[in-house]
Amino acid sequence: MTQTIARKSLYESDYLLWIQETITHLKAGDFEHLDIENLIEEIEDLGRSQRKELESRLKTLIEHFLKRIYVNMPYCFNGWENTIREQRSQIEVLLNNYPSLKSYWDEHLNSAWIIALKYVRKEYKPQGFDCPDKWQFDHDINSILNIDFWE
Known about the structure:
By secondary structure, the chain is mainly alpha-helical. It has one domain (10-146): Uncharcterised protein PF01724 (Malate Synthase G, Chain: A, Domain 4). It has helices at residues 10-13, 15-28, 36-70, 77-97, 105-124, 141-146. Helix 3 runs antiparallel to helix 4 and helix 3 (36-70) packs across helix 5. It is elongated. It starts with 9 loop residues before the first helix and ends in a 5-residue tail after the last helix.
């Protein structure tokens, strides 16, 4: 009876060491010993994580827009506006650091709108939350990041 011993790659067994060795190989120009398959996967994941962060921040921003515009709870306005300012600031930083994310704006804005609307409707239905099915304001980056739609 033969035994099959599954050998874990360095990538699977010690990710931090894998990163350090990958950096060493890259700096030395030792491309022959690079774990190309996992390196490509990691680089692809970097781009995905930035897009996911944009969508997540847009979702939070839109949730708080919806609350501030359509939920009549004045004692909550300040907290919602603080969250709006923080999300706007973080989105600006993200777009400044990764300008190509702007090409994903419409896609992520629409996706974030659908998720945020569903969440806020469910959360505030008992308070009589009523909101249009479509965003009634400008969709462009500058408007979303600068206009206080509730004024």
